[in-house]
Structures are given as structure tokens and as C-alpha cells.
Amino acid sequence: MSLLFWLDLFRWLFSRTFRKAGELGDTVQKILDHQRDVLPGANIATVEAALAALKKVVRSGADAAAIKAQMASLEEEANRWLRPYPNADFREYAVMFLEIAILIPVDDRHGAGIIIVVDSQQGGGLGKAAAL
């Protein structure tokens, strides 16, 4: 692993500003990707330039004040050019509910069970099916 990876890991562990900058950049990138088909090209280019500037400042190893200034600039550009979601709170709750519903497995006690295929040295590598 490169030295840059270890420096970024160290900064991520010990710098709240570094973590917040990454979170802001990811959020703006996500919203930009969702709205890419409805935004004019100039708006997309402006927000992408602000994202690139934030990434450049973060990667350069700048101090917290410079990162915060660039975060404020990105937030200003995003608020100016990206469209707000209608009913944003409801949307966040719906996304969270769907993520939880997908991540939590449902226990089917009345069904036939789950079949898991496990590798076996016998049988020419075809594997065995184990019913749980």
C-alpha cells in the first residue's frame, strides 16, 4: 500500500474536518448523479468543478481552515445549482426504510428452508446442497 493511503487513513482517523469533507463530497456527488439528466450542462460543470477543487484541497494535505473554506464554497455552489428534493425528510425516511428492509433477512419458518451450496472435495467439485 502506498504512503498516500496511510496518510489519508491517519487523517481520516484523527481529523473530523477530513471526514466531514469526504461526507460532503460524497453527498453532493450522489445528488448530482441523481439529477444529472434534469440539470443543464453549465450547472453540472460548475458543481463538478467545485467537487474537484474540494478533492484537490483535501489531497494536497491542506490545513483544516483551507478545507473548511473549500467545503463552504462547495456547499454554496451545490445549494445554488442543485435542485432540492421535494419532501426531503420523507425521501430520507423511505430510503432508510428500504435499506433496512433489504439488509435484514426475513426468517421464513414455514417455508422449506434455505439451501446453501458448500464445496466438497468429493464428487468432482460439484458441491453438496445442505438444507437448513
Describe the structure.
By secondary structure, the protein is mainly alpha-helical. It has one domain: Up-down Bundle (Substrate Binding Domain Of Dnak, Chain:A, Domain 2), CATH 1.20.1270.10. Helices cover 64% and strands 6% of the residues. A two-stranded antiparallel sheet has the order 1-2. The mean pLDDT is 81.
List the helices and strands and how they pair.
Elements: H1 3-14, H2 16-35, H3 41-59, H4 64-81, H5 88-103, E1 115-118, E2 128-131
Antiparallel strand pairs: 1-2
Helix pairs in contact: 2-3, 2-4, 3-4
In short:
This protein is mainly alpha-helical and 132 residues long.
Task: Provide the descriptors you would attach to this structure in a database record.
mainly alpha, 5 helices, 132 residues, Substrate Binding Domain Of Dnak, Chain:A, Domain 2, two-stranded antiparallel sheet
Radius of gyration: 23 Å
Shape: globular
Strands of the biggest beta sheet: in what spatial order? 1-2
Report, as a whole number of angstroms, the end-to-end distance: 41 Å
CATH classification, class level: Mainly Alpha
Bin the strand percentage.
Answer: 5-15%
